[in-house]
Design goal:
alpha+beta, four-stranded antiparallel sheet, 22 helices, about 50% helix, flat, disordered N terminus
């Protein structure tokens, strides 16, 4: 009971503390995002260049996933708001746009070959350390990204990497800085401490009914019982309703004529290819490429002399995904293969063979075996799709009709049993009676969905809702009973209130006593004698350093308490340190300076860490300067 009260009061402080400790600085490698809704919507503009909602939504999702993985079940909407993740996502994209713009201004360019090499080096696209074309397309397809879009994003990332290198080229760490950091981080201290625990004083602190009633009056909102309702609801799933849909030939034809563009197909080709790759380990890559190209020209000459393409592909192609099939790639449209390959393949006529084509995968010869021109598909071919679409459109109307018919029957029912009987008359509807639940009861279906929750809690007893449409179906809710939010009677919470008052009083008393004891110690009294007179004991923390993060035996975070590590022998920490209702008096009792013998083995790790810190600082200052010179607007409504 006390724990829940503390959580209500301290949750904001906890989130702020986590935000201060865990800083996620995302600047490079935002990466491409998939196609999505609201792509045309703009979340920010940087010097006239728009940042789309799609980019923002994709990055925000990644941030949320990161924090969910970090905080597990502790992460919720409130924490996301406290951490300001939406603004962080926008700032990251603004930073990236500024970096790319600055790179362009400074004439930084990236070649197509550099983009191809960078893609090949990405581990997720390889098997056993070797780039795999089929895996590349599969990964992009699963993320709804086409190759052209990905290549453009990779080019932008390489440009930002170049400008980053330029910004950081003069940032360095010298040995003196490393030694100072080593000795500062690895100096270990041992603290004597006396602790006064507020919990130990609770029994001696009596609380009267009058004090408890006054506390309840002043803190009524902390004990407020939320509103609760009991409801009947019915659900009409669109999939079930679609099975009831009926439509005429004229409706099918009209839909086809009105939506012809939806049934247009892109031009597609059926092709084969022969792929040869230069030796990736060759000492002279240009020579290796020239030799590979010559081999492929020899194969091209054999094709022109009448050799069968499939036979030569089986014998020579280094594409593991198609070689055994004679180089067969099947049918594909634009946007499926990489741009350089498509630019060479699509202009070819049926039966025509290309020259040698270079892409990031190597060198190709392409043969187009068949072509399909784009255009509207015949009605008969797309009729199943039209019927499916019409059924989906009609399902919403049928769901509404079924729910309204059911509500008319339910309205006449006088008992829950009669309501159940009425609800069972339509086998395609799911109906349910709830017990009392609040808006936070996520185990109840009506509370899980924000729209359903808002509608349900706005109803008066006996009142039916409007039909509420969701992604999977429609709901109709009838409120049965309501219990409004209220402050509980004193008798219901008297024990909890008294315990809270007693604990808070005891904690304050313990803190006051701790401060008085610290003042006595500062004036020269021996801490052991003071502890004995107060029936306390002197304890030892044991040796620890800054890098340990938390002080042993106390659980106190020391990352923000530099003063512990600058104490002189026998000195007291100047303040009482409070932690979880306990109040500590600390005195330095021992020091172990860092052993210089360990400096060299740790030197490079320390250099890497310190250099990363200086890099972050330099980048932050650089971005700050770019922002000050740029015109940036943010569409707050889109966040």
């Amino acid at each position: 009971m006390l724990e829940s009260f503390r959580k209500r009061r301290n949750s904001a402080l906890i989130v702020v503390a986590f935000a201060a400790i865990i800083v996620v600085f995302i600047f490079w490698g935002v990466g491409p995002s998939g196609n999505g809704e609201n792509d045309a919507s703009v979340v920010a503009t940087v010097d006239g260049e728009d940042i789309s909602y799609r980019e923002y939504a994709n990055l925000y999702k990644k941030e949320v996933e990161y924090y969910k993985e970090t905080f597990k079940e502790q992460f919720n909407d409130e924490m996301a708001k406290k951490l300001n993740l939406k603004q962080k996502a926008v700032d990251i994209l603004i930073n990236r746009a500024l970096a790319i713009k600055e790179a362009e201004n400074q004439g930084i360019k990236v070649s197509e070959q550099e983009v191809q090499e960078a893609i090949k080096a990405i581990p997720v696209f390889g098997k056993n350390g070797v780039f795999d074309k089929d895996l590349y397309f599969k990964v992009l397809s699963s993320n709804r990204v086409n190759p052209a879009e990905f290549e453009k994003s990779m080019e932008a990332d390489l440009m930002t990497a170049r400008i980053r290198e330029k910004v950081l080229k003069d940032v360095a760490v010298n040995d003196q800085e490393l030694k100072e950091r080593f000795f500062r981080e690895n100096r270990k201290i041992d603290l004597s401490f006396v602790v006064l625990d507020g919990q130990a004083l609770m029994k001696a602190s009596a609380v009267t009914d009058e004090e408890a009633k006054e506390f309840l009056k002043k803190n009524a909102s902390e004990f407020m019982v939320p509103p609760k309702i009991k409801a009947f609801y019915a659900f009409a799933g669109y999939e079930s309703m679609a099975s009831r849909a009926k439509f005429t030939d004229d409706e099918i034809k009209s839909y086809y004529e009105a939506n012809k563009k939806r049934f247009e197909t892109q031009a597609s080709i059926k092709a084969r290819h022969i792929l040869l790759r230069p030796d990736p380990n060759a000492a002279d890559m240009e020579k290796a490429k020239a030799e590979t190209k010559k081999r492929l020209n020899d194969i091209l000459a054999r094709l022109k002399s009448g050799a069968k393409f499939a036979d030569l592909a089986k014998a020579h192609s280094q594409d593991p995904g198609s070689a055994k099939q004679g180089g067969d790639l099947g049918w594909f449209q634009r946007g499926v293969m990489i741009k350089a390959f498509e630019d060479a393949a699509f202009p070819l006529n049926k039966g025509e063979v290309s020259g040698v084509v270079e892409t990031e995968f190597g060198f190709h010869i392409i043969k187009v075996e068949d072509k399909k021109e784009g255009g509207a598909s015949p009605l008969k071919e797309v009729e199943p799709l039209i019927k499916q679409a019409l059924a989906g459109d009609k399902a919403k109307g049928l769901a509404r009709e079924a729910l309204m018919a059911l509500d008319a029957k339910v309205a006449q029912a006088k008992t829950p049993e009669e309501m159940k009987k009425a609800a069972s008359s339509d086998k395609d509807l799911k109906s349910m009676f709830t017990g009392f639940f609040s808006e936070d009861d996520m185990g109840v279906e009506l509370a899980k969905n924000e729209q359903l929750r808002a509608v349900s809690f706005s109803l008066a007893p006996g009142q039916p809702s409007r039909v509420v449409e969701t992604e999977d179906g429609a709901y109709l809710v009838r409120l049965l009973e309501r219990k409004d939010a209220h402050v509980p009677e004193f008798s219901e919470v008297a024990s909890e209130v008294k315990d809270i008052i007693a604990e808070e009083r005891a904690v304050r008393e313990a803190e006051t006593r701790a401060r008085a004891l610290l003042e006595r110690a500062k004036k020269g009294e021996d801490i052991s004698a003071i502890a004995k007179s107060e029936k306390l004991k002197v304890e030892q923390s044991g040796y620890f350093s800054r890098t340990d993060g938390f002080m042993p035996r106390t659980g106190i975070f020391v990352g923000d308490k530099e003063g512990f590590f600058t104490l002189t022998a026998g000195a007291y920490f100047p303040e009482v340190v409070s932690h979880n209702g306990r109040h500590f008096i600390f005195r330095l009792s021992g020091v172990k300076e860092a052993d210089e013998a360990f400096f060299e083995p740790r030197k490079e790790e320390l250099r890497e860490r310190l250099l990363a810190e200086k890099h972050d600082q330099a980048l932050s200052e650089w971005l700050k300067g770019l922002r000050e010179k740029s015109k940036i607007t943010i569409n707050e409504k889109a966040l």
